Amino acid sequence: MPICPKCESKRIKRSHTRTFKEKFLKNFNRRTFRCLDCGWRGIIKVKYTKEKEKLIIKRRKIFRYVTATIVTLVALFITKYLMG
After folding, report:
1. How many domains does the chain have?
2. 33 and 54 share a domain?
């Protein structure tokens, strides 16, 4: 569990992402946290176990394949619509 960089408290919880920067950094193992003691809010890099990391990589691959399939089908549909 992460530790607050301001007061070094262990009473820290996940916080909802608000900005584009925070949402973008979620893709790189950085999460937004809030300290329950001092109120600090910021981004901390999280470390995963090997099993969790493998699961994340697998999900990313599936997401890429599904996205590529959808883009291909849309492109084929548009091509067919414009040609015929």
Report:
1. 2
2. no
The Cβ of residue 4 has, within 10 Å, a number of other Cβ atoms equal to 21
Instruction: Check residue 65 and give its pLDDT.
Output: 95
Domain that holds residue 74: 48-84
Where does residue 31 rank: exposed (0-12), middle (13-18), buried (19+ CB within 10 A)? middle
pLDDT tens figures, 27-70: 787 889 999 999 999 999 887 778 877 888 898 899 999 999 99
* 2 and 38 fall within a common domain: yes
Q: Looking at the whole model, is its pTM more than 0.85?
A: no
